[in-house]
Amino acid sequence: CRVGQGGGVDVSVPGVDPAPEIYVLVLYVIAGSRASRHAVANLRAICDELLADRYALEVIDLRERPALAGERNILAAPTLVKERPPPAVRLIGDLSDRERVLATLGLQPQ
Fold it and tell me: Residue 9: pLDDT above 60?
């Protein structure tokens, strides 16, 4: 353990890769809508392929929890919110534009 330049403590071990970052994603949908079904399928495919066990996905049906739309400033559905890793970002739509989704999430295609 050593003190880094910014005064923080560096607890990395030389030669050992740090634990991979966990992605925390929230997808706001309207159950039954075609765009929402596509968004769920497209996002799960990307996450399963590129993030494997490094993501937590919560799918929220705004028909069941409409107050959340106002509380969380969700203006359209489907809307994807990447909460972690920072910065938090939002993407609206069915997530069919794979390159745009990857860029928004900060991921590189394999």
Answer: no
